[in-house]
Amino acid sequence: MMESQKYAIVDLETTGHSPANGDRMIQIAIVVMRDWCIEKTFTSFIHPGKSIPLFIQDLTNITDTDVADALPFEAHADYIYELLQDAVFVAHNTDFDLAFLQAEFKRAGLPKWHGKKIDTVELAKILYPTSLSYKLGDLAHDLNIPLKNAHRADDDAKATALLLKACWEKLLQLPQVTLEQLHKRSFRLKSDIAQLFFSALHEKRQTVSHDEDYIIYQKIAMKRFEKRSATYKNDAKYPKTRKDKMELLKKAVPNFEERPLQFQMMDKIWHSLLDKQEVVIEASTGIGKTLSYLLPAFYYAKESGRKVGISTYTSHLLDQLLNEEVTKLEAITGEKIHVALLKGMQNYVDVERFEKILKMQDDSYDETLAIIQVLIWLVNTETGDLNELNVSGGGQLFLDKIRKTVLETNIPSYFDFYERAIYKSKHADLIITNHAMLLADLVRHEQLFSEIGGWIVDEAHQFIQAAVQRDEKVFSFMNWKYLFGQIGLYTDEQLFYRLQRVALKKHRVSMQLLQQTEKRFMQMVTLFDEVMQSFVEALQPHFRNSNKHEMKQTIFLSEVVIDYKRFGQVSAAIQNWIDLAEQVLQTFHEHTDEIAPEHQFILDEWLYWIREFKVKVAEWDEVFLIQHNHYSAWIEVDKRSIPGSVQLFKKPINVTTVIQQLFTPIRERAAVIWTSGTLTVPNNERFISDQLGVSAEVPIYKLQAPAKYYGGAKAFVVTDMPEIQVVSQNDYIEAVAHAITRTVRTTEGRCFVLFTSQDMLRKTVELIQESELLEDYMLFAQGVTAGSRMRLLKSFQKFSQSVLFGTNSFWEGVDVPGDGLASVIVVRLPFSSPDEPTFKARAQYLQSEGRNPFAELSLPEAILRFKQGFGRLIRSSQDKGVLIVLDRRIDTKSYGKEFIRALPPISVQKLPLQHMVQALGTWYNNKHE
User: Fold this and answer.
1) β-pairing, 430-434 with 339-342?
2) What is the pLDDT of residues 414-441, one digit of tens each?
3) HEC assignment per residue over 563-603
4) Any residues with CB less than 8 A from the CB of 357 and at least 6 apart, and which?
5) 580 burial level (CB within 10 Å; 0-12, 13-18, 19+)
6) What value does the mean pLDDT take over residues 480-498?
7) Highest mean pLDDT of the ranges 34-43, 274-283, 779-788
8) Which of 337, 445, 570, 822 is the most exposed place for a label (fewest CB within 10 A)?
9) Could you give the dihedral angle defined by the CA atoms of residues 738, 740, 745 and 747, in that order, rounded to the nearest 10 degrees?
């Protein structure tokens, strides 16, 4: 029996981050834990000897009054020092708490504390590698740990103690082989977690193991994969009549409200699947679109024995479909529904590659941490989808090394997650995938997709965007320099150095061939640098014409004079190096004797980078050498870092032909159903359908929820905003900030503010923060607050008094049901910026054909986004919300009424700001009665 360890879990609240600059402690809490039970708690306010800054009072709810009668740290120092003796010091970010405490001990004349420490941030990253956030409050929420007052030392210390215990329990659930791998690597971590791993391993060895739930590949444990039999026909029948549908739905959803349009949509999809027809359905929120296609799709699969494919745009929607909607469908039908989620190959982990990397000595901390996270994740993941992991920046680079990039594999297929996903797809009723995968991998999986009896494309308007992204070519200077750095010369001690040492030691490759390969490598890099230098010089004249203060600049490639012959020479030089690099590999393998695993790993790395360079040279040719008429190409550069910041983008102007090529063979054998909440605009019904290459004969059905569904919605147009063309940008931003603060305070937050320009968004947010008029509110701003779109949204939903500022990409695909959202403020009508390169190229193309870019592109796109913005607001008939438009053009320009026509039948009032705020207040207060 191991002796029981004492843990001292510490949390401090302080006046700031730096004891050296006079910051002091204001509260300390220590929880002593032994045998995973809390033995003792010490908590006390501490007098800082100075007043507490306002933002700290705000954060901690600790005021000067709270600490007025408290004693200074020196009065508690001996007792605290004693509590920490023989203990492992634990904190949620030990770097801060321990360093601060050591400085306070020194000030009190005590020696430095010595002992082991465990950082629960690091530990939680390891044991919960898929958590969205590692803040204490978020982890406590996810793990059901009580935490009433975050940022109060007593509550935080207790929550941290319970987090430590949860991590220990999680460790004990891991298979022994995983614990052995973790322990071996844990000495490279920042805090002393190795001891914890060792204790868990010791305990595991004493108990009866239940490791049969896992399969083991070369000491890597993974969750066992359950195979299942193929889809079978059964007697489940589609509910054809209204009565049948009502009976079915009422059984599973007790207070089911009948929506006639939902039944209508189900029938349209059912007949389309049966007759292998194509159809376009615009279904507004309130119809229950997802269930309207899942139900007929499931019954069709069961009755016909053919699968139905469902494609959507974002991974968030994929997960929503899988987790929520399919569960609902199972409750309704009373059947187990076999669903397979299929993503592009590079989303999955390559276990074989990961295992080879494990055999190597890992270098950086980031890499060690990522390896440990992946080992634990593999024990739990069903899918092997690397997007599930939340890793640091350096960890992200590591994940790129273990993505699956080639189909052939030397390991049994049940260890290969991509193969598992394909297998699942073969035995599923419904296959759920995303637009990108549908576009990219259809070519690869003819057999798989040929069994599909119908495709339902949800978020169909986004299919165009997905096709553009699929065909987009990007060149990044930094990325190329990174590639060169991975290979290196012999003197750089990178991959080439390691390869040469093994090759010569084992007498596998002649010195002459190695020197020749290195020489070609040098020629390639030198030529690349020279060509880039001349490219940057060719950009110089364009910098002079631009605004002095604008550091970032966009230049169309067609405007730059370049020597394409030189770019061709770079391409040839890369190819020359690839040829020799392949020859080195071949010569290595000609010998029959066994290659040691660590040498094999170097060869695998070499092969990996050869493949990368083959991809890169094809990209180089696509970007610089192949002239396409139907592409727009532009350079983005930051004048402060040249050539480092040089990036070149090449996007297709029109993707209709690509989409048609994809769907022409499908149309011959299966139904195609396009659906979305926004597919049409007034006066231009086929705007999206035409771009999707849908024939003009295919009908478009518009299903709009009844007017009463929107009973809780209202719109206001503010009539006394200044006109942006008339006043300076600063004046305009001031007026916008004023209108936003008035609105937010009236509705008490829960507000989306939608901009069309990142620059205006940033300046408005800064002005609002300076004014402190919204200091009681949590403000989250895209491009300003750190984190992805989904993370910002999750943070926004957590707080009742919050405001989310977003640009065009936030206008769609964001769901905040119920009370989550009270108002959407549209700062500017969502027209694309005329200087946005892809838009500019499309407009020029239309103009060259004698067509009107405003009427045929600019206006319909803006109206679609506007409809999307409104769609965020009312997600159910109980929702109440208000749309506020600050852009006067909706009132003063002739096209303004088309925006209003695109809204459902709701009340639209045009009022000056003062009156609008009063009307809003009345409406909001009535809403809450």
Assistant:
1) parallel
2) 788 888 888 888 888 888 888 888 887 5
3) CHHHHHHHHHHHHHHHHHHHHHHHHHHHCCCCCCHHHHHHH
4) 371, 401, 402, 601
5) middle
6) 84
7) 274-283
8) 445
9) 150
Is 3.40.30.10 the CATH classification of the domain at 6-172? no
Q: Is the pLDDT of residue 877 over 70?
A: no
Q: What is the reported pLDDT for 573?
A: 92
Residue 900 corresponds to which tokens in the numbers above?
A: 């209003």
Q: In this model, does residue 1 exceed pLDDT 70?
A: no
Helices marked H in 816-876: 837-848, 853, 859-871
Buried b (16+ CB within 10 A) or exposed e, 808-827: bebbbbbebeeebbbbbbbb
CA distance 613 to 607: 10
Element (H, E) at 56: helix 54-60
Among 896, 729, 869, CA closest to 807? 869
User: Can you give the residue ranges of every domain in the chain?
Assistant: 6-172, 473-652, 710-927
DSSP lists the bridge partners of residue 119 as 91
Higher pLDDT pick, 552 / 122: 122
C-alpha of 233 from chain center:
38
| Predicted pLDDT at 818 | 44
Q: Distance between CA 650 and CA 474 in Å, rounded?
A: 6
Q: CB-hemisphere CA count at 13 Å for 356?
A: 19
Alpha carbons 144 and 165: distance in angstroms, whole number? 13
726 exposed, middle or buried (CB, 10 Å; 0-12, 13-18, 19+)?
exposed
Contacts (Cβ under 8 Å, ≥6 apart) of 733 = 760, 763, 764, 767
What value does the mean pLDDT take over residues 99-103? 87
Structure tokens at 290: 């997802």
Strand ranges, E, within 270-320: 278-283, 307-312
pLDDT of 361 over the 70 cut: no
More confident residue, 719 or 796: 719
pLDDT of res. 522: 92
E strands, 416-476, in order: 430-434, 452-457, 473-476
Gyration radius from the chain CA atoms:
31
351 Cβ partners below 8 Å, 6+ apart?
217, 220, 222, 378, 384, 411, 415, 416, 417
Contact criterion met (CB below 8 Å) for 282 and 679: yes
| pLDDT tens-digit series, residues 782-832 | 777 766 666 777 777 777 778 888 887 666 555 554 455 678 899 889 898
**Of 501-505, 648-652, 671-675, 711-715, which one has max mean pLDDT?**
671-675
User: Quick one: which of 524, 516, 495, 507 has its CA closest to 587?
Assistant: 507
Q: How many CB atoms lie within 10 A of CB 350?
A: 24
Q: Residues 242-280: pLDDT tens digits? A: 888 888 888 777 777 788 888 999 999 999 999 999 999
What pLDDT sits at residue 549?
Answer: 60
Contact 13, 25 (CB under 8 A): yes
CB contact at 8 A, 610 and 578: yes
Closest to 337 (Cα-Cα) out of 422, 424, 420:
424
In sequence order, the 6+-apart residues with CB closer than 8 A to the CB of 69 are: none
String of DSSP letters for 271-285: HHHHHT-EEEEEE-T
Residue 556's CB is within 10 A of a number of other CB atoms, namely 15
Partner residues linked to 431 by β-bridges: 309, 340
At residue 674 the predicted structure's pLDDT band, cuts being 50, 70 and 90, is very high
Fold of the domain built from segment(s) 710-927: Rossmann fold (3.40.50)
Query: pLDDT value at position 456?
Result: 93
- Tokens 């890597």 correspond to 220
Q: Please state the length of the chain.
A: 929
> Using CA atoms, how far apart are residues 487 and 447, in angstroms rounded to an integer?
39
